[in-house]
Every structure is written in structure tokens, then in C-alpha cells.
Amino acid sequence: MSGHSKWSTIKRKKGAIDAARGKVFTKIIKEITVAARIGGGDIEANPRLRLAVNSAKSNNMPADNITRAIKKGTGELEGVSYDEITYEGYGPGGVALIIESMTDNRNRTVAELRHLLSKHGGNLAESGAVSWNFERKGVITVAKGTYTEDDLMNVILEAGADDMEGADDFFEVTASLENFETVRKAIEASALNGAKIESASLQYVPKQTTKVEGSAAESTMKLIGVIEDNDDVQNVYTNADIDEKVMEEFG
Q1: Domain 84-131+209-250 class in CATH
Q2: What residues form DSSP beta bridges with 102?
Q3: 124: burial class by Cβ within 10 Å (0-12, 13-18, 19+)?
Q4: How far is CA 152 from CA 9, 143, 211, in A?
Q5: Beta strand 210-212 with 240-242: parallel, antiparallel or unpaired?
Q6: What CA–CA distance (Å, rounded) separates 46 from 36?
């Protein structure tokens, strides 16, 4: 299993926990609001908003919540204005971190992130310090059905996908930004024996990974966990290739 697929496994498990605590709704509402503010409230004409709304629906968010978030973004309803800021940093063992945030107070967010990183053996870095080792790609997770891996591979390769990895009970498909929407629609249209898209999003995928084991691996997982729990943080990406045993403990 690739390092990225391992992270997807952990993300899925953590996502279920966050959903139970209502954290998923908070992050999705922020994304919908910002997407609507930047690209308008027309879902068909705004790809980013369409992704956010699809994510909301897959997480069973009520339609009224989605509509309100869009209206807050377009200014039809009063709401908080969020700034998007991406931070770069290092964790234990020199692993790279990219942290996407949405905040209404930049000073608070950077102070909290600096504190969390320092407390867990990491530090913030200058812009560009680690992002060179990541590519922005579309990542689609598809629940495994009764179809074969070859069936799905044929569909995605014809649509222009870059790669596919199998992990536990799902497949992870990656595609370039240019082909992402085409690949997503191809999977959706194929509906191979119950194929279901669980999530589709734009992510930072590492070009090269850094192996971390033992205490460094545990510290890395703890650090990522506390960063993701911060209310201003939307996503955390890393090039860490965590030891399997540690992944299982935190999964």
C-alpha cells in the first residue's frame, strides 16, 4: 500500500470520528462559503463549490445548511468572512507538512499553529520550503464493489487518470487537475456493480516520502492529530511514510 493510501485509510477512520463530533460539518460549511464567495453560488458553473456540495451531501448534511452556507458566501445572508492561508512546516524526523486553513483571525491561527508545532517537535517554515515536494492533484476514493480492479482501471485510464491504489475496502484514484473532473464523471457514469465515489477532492500529494518509525512516527501522528483538531484548519498533508504498526494504533 502506498504512503498516500495509508493516509487515506487513517483519514477515513478519523473522518467518521469527526462526523460524530460535528467537526466535518463545520469544515464543509467553511469550504462552501468560501467557494461561493470566490466563484459564485451557481453549483454548475463553480467546480469548487460543486465539490464542496457533493462532500456535504455524502456526509448527509441537511439541504438547508448547504443553502445557507452558499448564501453567506454570496452575501445574500450575513456571515463571517474567512481568509484562506496555507502554511508549510516540518514535523518530527524532518517530515514535511502543508496545512490548509480558513480563518477569521490570521494572528490567532499562526500563533496557535506555531505553538502546536513547537510543542510536538516541529516548526513552521517559509513559503516554498516544502511545497516543492508536493503536487496538487485530484484524489477520488471509490468503495470496493463486486467489480474487479481491472474493470475500474480500464475506466479511469481511458478518462486520463494518473494512478490507482487499493487500500482496505476502497480504491484511491489520482488524476491531474486538468483530468480530475473527467475521471470523476467517468467513474460516476460507469457505476460498475455498485461502485460508489466516497469522496473527491483536490489534495497535495507528495512526490517523495520520508520514512519515520518508532517514537518519531508516534510524535508525527500526534502532531497531525492536534493540528487537524484546530478549528481553523481544513486539511493537513504530509510526506511522512509512517510505520504500519503506528498507523494501526492511531487508526
Answers
A1: alpha beta
A2: 84
A3: middle
A4: 19, 11, 30
A5: parallel
A6: 8
For CATH 3.30.70.980, list the domain ranges present in the chain.
Answer: 84-131+209-250, 133-206
Question: pLDDT (tens digit, 9 = 90+) per residue, 116-158?
Answer: 999 999 999 999 999 999 999 999 988 887 567 888 898 899 9
Q: Assess contact for 51 and 200: CB atoms under 8 A.
A: yes
The answer to whether the beta carbons of residues 125 and 118 sit under 8 Å apart is no
Three-state secondary structure of 161-215: CCEEEEECCEEEEEECCCCHHHHHHHHHHHCHHHCEEEEEEEEEEECCCEEECHH
For the domain spanning 3-74, the CATH number is 1.10.10.200
Residue ranges with strand state E in 27-180:
83-90, 96-103, 123-125, 134-143, 163-167, 170-175
Question: 133-206: CATH homologous superfamily?
Answer: YebC, transcriptional regulation domain (3.30.70.980)
